[in-house]
Structure formats: C-alpha cells, structure tokens
Amino acid sequence: MAGRTRAEMMEDTRRKLVASARAAFAGKGFASTSMDDLTAAVGLTRGALYHNFGDKKGLLAAVVDEIDAEMAGRARRLAEAEATAWNALLAEGCAYIEMALDPEVQRIVLRDGPAVLGDPAQWPSQNRCLDATRAAVAELKAEGVLRPVDVEAAARLLNGAALNAAHWVAACEDPAAMLPKAQEAFRMLAEGLLEEHAS
Q1: pLDDT in tens, the chain (199 residues)
Q2: Where are the transmembrane segments (predicted)?
C-alpha cells in the first residue's frame, strides 16, 4: 500500500483537530477548553493546531463552519420535501430555528460562536445561507409569489429573523416551549412578503 501524500496527512490532522474541538467545545465550552485538551485527545501538538488554524479561535471558526454546513444541509433536505418553493423557504427557516434545541448547536454556534467570533452575518457559513435565501427570494419574486420587494433586503431580513429566533430559543429557560411560538412568528413575518393572490 502506497504511503499517504502530505496533503492527505494534513487533511487528516485538520479533521482530527476539528473532531476533538467539536467534542470539547460541546462538552466544556470554548472558554473552559485548553489548547492541551484539544491536542492531547488526538495525540497531536500545539504546533499542529497553530499550523492548521492559527489559534483556538481559528479552530472554533472551523468547527462552527462544519456545524453550520450540516445545519444547512438538514434544513435543505426538509425544504426539498415541500411541494412549492414558498413552502420550502418557510420550512428551511423553521428547521433552522428548531435546530436551536440541539445542545451542540446551542453551545457552539449560538452562544460561543458569536461571543468569540463576532457578528454571525460576517461568517462564511452564514453568507452561504444568505446566498441560498437570496436565490429563493429572487425566484419567488420572478414568479409573482412575492410583492415587488428588494431581493437583498428581503433575504437579509428572513435570514436575520431565523437566526435571531434561534438565538432566542437557545437562550430561554424552556426552549421546547418557545420553539413553536418562534416558528409561528417567523412564518407570519415571512407571509408579509406574499402577494395577496399568493396567500
């Protein structure tokens, strides 16, 4: 069997560090996780972490990106089961809000992520979500489903509403009880974009 290439070894190191960090950040939180916790668990050195991610914050960004991508994939799969593009857009937003019930999402993406990495609107993963929402809004507007609204403004407000609803659900005392209220309000806000004949 041929030896692994340098690129394969580097990718394996990155994967191990992200998996270690994901488990540690979910269990202990970002602030309580030491660099040694992250590297010792997978038999690597601090140097490997610095080389691949720059620092612990860079590693958190990679973990958030991975989880956000998984969240987007789950939401997209639910949306694909819907009969119309409008229902798909609503399903995707409601699914994102519901993922705030997941303890890993709560702690890493919705609490530690913004506290350490800053405004989620600046994260690459959130910008990919915005791109998808923008495309959906443009399609719905072209089909006459939506009022003559600015596509960029509508996409940003829909994304912001879902993200803020998820933050609210994650932070409240009884997330499961708040979830249906947040999803209903999201749907009602979104429906304000509909043309009268489409409602």
Answers
A1: 457 788 888 889 999 999 999 999 999 999 999 988 888 888 888 888 898 999 999 999 999 999 999 998 999 899 999 999 999 999 999 999 999 999 999 999 999 999 999 998 888 888 888 999 999 999 999 999 999 999 999 999 999 999 999 999 999 999 999 999 999 999 999 999 999 865 5
A2: none
CA atoms within 13 A on the CB side of 143: 12
Instruction: Report whether 63 contacts 30 (CB < 8 A).
Output: no
To the question of pTM greater than 0.85 for the whole model, the response is yes
Task: Give the whole-angstrom CA distance, residue 136 versus residue 119.
Answer: 24
Same-domain check for residues 31 and 84: no
Domain extent for 118:
66-192
CA distance 193 to 137: 10
